[in-house]
Amino acid sequence: MNDQPRLIYNPTAAQGSAGKNLPKVQSLLAERGFKYVLLMTEGPDHARKLARQAAEDGCNLVIAAGGDGTVNEVINGLMQAELNGNKRPALGVLPVGRGNDFAYGIDLTTELIATIDILVKGDCRTIDVGRVTGGDYPQGRYFGNGVGLGFDTVVGFEAAKIKWIHGAASYLVALVRTIFLYSKAPVYEIALDGNKPFQRAFLMVSVMNGKRMGGSFYMAPNGKPDDGIFNLCLADQVPQLKILPLAAKFLKGTQQDHPAVKMMQARKITIRAIQGTIPAHADGETICTAGQALNIDIFPEALEVVSKKYDA
Question: Residue 252 is part of which domain span?
Answer without folding.
Answer: 132-300
